[in-house]
């Protein structure tokens, strides 16, 4: 049962994000990769078979779990239409101006009847690092990341040492995943602290984001 008046962030078990590494409340670590996608339907039958086999080999080679997350949201077409309208005004040839105007009308009509979706693909790599954060350490969970001067306290020397040892192990796992996905012709980018924070912020504050582009 939900607790009235309690912000959603309080239910996310992330204590801190340090150098692109999420530290969970139980001391475990997580890193995130954003991956590219493939247009599987345009591949030939042989290419599809090779991709599936390579991805199967990649999954079978892993000795640790991973989480695959897909973020799907409706694409905001308004900035694109604004750019087209500026291009229309800048056209000096009447024929081109008419073509741009007709194209804008087509885009408006098409998007009014069809949801244009954008998708982002993420891989979450875990590492059970043990008790990296003591019970007496400060920090307000991920909710503190969304406030200026979040009130987080520094790690103790022992926690820093444990964190660095676990970070090395986690980054080795990330490298394995990156290499495996590269063999599947997928590009990857490691998310840093700012990117992860922005990802969670947009997740919990969709209304604020929409009002900023209205």
Secondary-structure topology with pairs:
Layout: E1 14-18, E2 21-24, E3 29-35, H1 45-61, E4 67-74, H2 78-90, H3 94-113, E5 117-127, H4 157-183, E6 188-190, H5 193-204, H6 206-213
Antiparallel strand pairs: 1-2, 2-3, 3-5, 3-6, 4-5
Strand percentage: 15-25%
Distance between the termini: 34 Å
Q: Largest sheet at a glance?
A: 6 strands, antiparallel
How many structural units, i.e. domains?
A: 2
SSE pattern, N- to C-terminal: EEEHEHHEHEHH
Cα shape:
extended
Q: Measured on Cα atoms, how large is the radius of gyration?
A: 23 Å
Relative helix content: 40-55%
**Uncertain parts:** 134-143
What structural category characterises the helix and strand content? alpha+beta
**Count of β-strands:** 6
Mean pLDDT score: 80
Number of helices: 6
Specify the oligomeric state: single chain
How would you describe the overall organization of this protein?
With about 210 residues, the protein is an alpha+beta fold. The protein has two domains: about 15-75 and about 120-214, no CATH class; about 75-115. The chain is about 45% helix and about 20% strand. Strands 1, 2, 3, 4, 5 and 6 form a six-stranded antiparallel β-sheet that branches. A hairpin with a 4-residue loop joins strand 2 and strand 3.
